[in-house]
Write a structure and sequence with these properties.
alpha/beta, 9 helices, 41% helix
Length: 211
């Protein structure tokens, strides 16, 4: 996930390095700025990813549609609890789009289960540990809290929030289909090396627990 505290040129360089190092998914996460600026960044990052990883935009299904209209490859959207309802996003983006949803509580999982089959591709579950990238985050779940939520849904669960390299194996063992990081790459002196270390940790995790 990108870090909107950084200059966009730096973000693009980090994304290029991360994708080259084997990161599977890139999420453009921008909480401020104008729609025009976000659209330009989406188109630019799509070019940087160049189809080598799944590329999604945080919150904004409208930006996904606009970027696609401009010829950019954008695979889907990640939605928060206060964003466009996932079923509406699915109708707008189509059956082949990636649609993810943030879920931090059992009621969130119940809401996900109530959606029509095929609406959601995955859930983002966290935060695992306190994180500075989301000052208003809910209480940290820890690995055990994540495991309880992941066991309560058939949807793939991505662990997010304060995840470090040493957390990858325990989280995979707890049922995580993957992990999402921000600062681990954005604050790294060598994003390429950090992404490669993350890739190695993910590949070394027990295969049998992947959903």
């Amino acid at each position: 996930m990108t870090d909107d505290r950084l200059p966009f040129a730096h973000t693009r360089a980090i994304v290029t390095a991360a994708v080259g190092a084997g990161v599977d998914v890139v999420q453009l996460r921008v909480k401020g700025g104008t729609a025009r600026e976000l659209l330009a960044q989406t188109v630019a990052l799509s070019a940087a990813v160049a189809g080598r990883a799944t590329f999604v935009v945080d919150d904004r299904a409208d930006i996904v549609l606009a970027a696609r209209d401009a010829g950019a490859r954008v695979d889907g959207v990640h939605l928060g609890q206060s964003d466009l309802p996932p079923d509406a996003a699915r109708r707008l983006l189509g059956p082949d789009a990636v649609v993810g949803w943030t879920a931090n509580t059992l009621p969130h999982l119940a809401a996900a289960a109530a959606l029509p089959a095929g609406t959601l591709d995955y859930l983002g579950v966290g935060v695992i540990r306190p994180t500075t990238t989301k000052p208003d985050h809910p209480p940290a779940l820890g690995v055990d809290g994540f495991a309880r939520l992941a066991a309560s849904t058939p949807l793939p669960c991505i662990a997010i929030g304060g995840v470090g390299i040493d957390d990858v194996a325990p989280l995979r063992d707890a049922g995580a289909a993957g992990v999402a990081v921000v600062s681990l790459l954005s604050a790294a002196e060598d994003p390429d090396a950090a992404a490669r270390a993350l890739r190695r940790a993910a590949d070394a995790a027990p295969v049998g627990v992947v959903r």
